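ARCHIVE CARD
Drawer: 12
Card no.: 0347
Subject: one protein chain, sequence and derived structure
Cross-reference: see card 0346
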Amino acid sequence: MDVALIAVAGTLLGVIATHWFQGRMTLRTAALARNEQLRQERIAAFSAFAGAVVEYRRSQNDRWFRAVENPGSEEAEESRHASYRQRTAAHQALFRVQLICDDAALRQLAEAAFVDTHCLHEAVGAEDRAHRSEQAKEALSRFIAAAAPGLR
């Protein structure tokens, strides 16, 4: 009889231990899956933001050139409106970065890239425009460099 009780107790102990270890493994697997999903969402958000800012910078440069070459022309107005559309797209991408990123410094770098790009059309002269364009490009590069290690 003692042998049977020991066998039952051992079996129960084995079942409890197995259940505990499986529960921990399930939690660990769920955490890993969640972290990977968040990493993938960050990659998508950061990539979309970088692409939107590049397009916004291109449209801001185009806007500046059109306004200097032929102020008040239909082309200049179309370019201005195109830059507004690109600004909206870049702003939406920035909002997504702000929502998904928990690193305050990284969010500030993203905001700086957007602001530097936004101010490009206010350049006075070709040299100022080139400087502002390069400044916006470097701000985006700083954001990408800071974001990349957390995505690997």
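Annotation on reverse: The mean pLDDT is 92. The radius of gyration is 27 Å.
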